[in-house]
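User: Hey, my collaborator sent me this sequence without any context and asked if I could get a structure. I don't really work with proteins. Can you help?
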Amino acid sequence: MLDVARFWLDLGIDGFRADAVPYLFEREDTNCENLPETHAYLKKMRAFMDQNYPGRLLLCEANQWPEEVRPYFGDGDEFHMVFIFPSCRASIWR
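Assistant: No problem. I've predicted the 3D structure and written it out in C-alpha cell form, which is a compact way to encode the shape of the chain:
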C-alpha cells in the first residue's frame, strides 16, 4: 500500500481520504472495529507521509461517536483530520 500511496503522492495529490477506517483489518471472533493492527498500520502510513511528503494530509472517515473516533488521531501520529458523521446528523441538532 505504501507503494500505491507513493505513486499518487508523486503525481502531486494533496493527501488521502480513507473510508471505513475502523474496519481496515479483519480478525476472526471480533467485529473488526478499532483493532490494534489498524492503529499500527496508520502510524506507519503517517510516518511514511511525514518523512517523504511533508504537508500532505490524511483524512479519516469513521462512522462512530466522537469518543470512539478520537484514537484515530493517535498522539499526532495517525490522521490529521477526522469526519465525525454522528455529529453531522440532523437529529442531534433538534
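In plain terms: The mean pLDDT is 88. You can pass these C-alpha cells on to your collaborator as they are.
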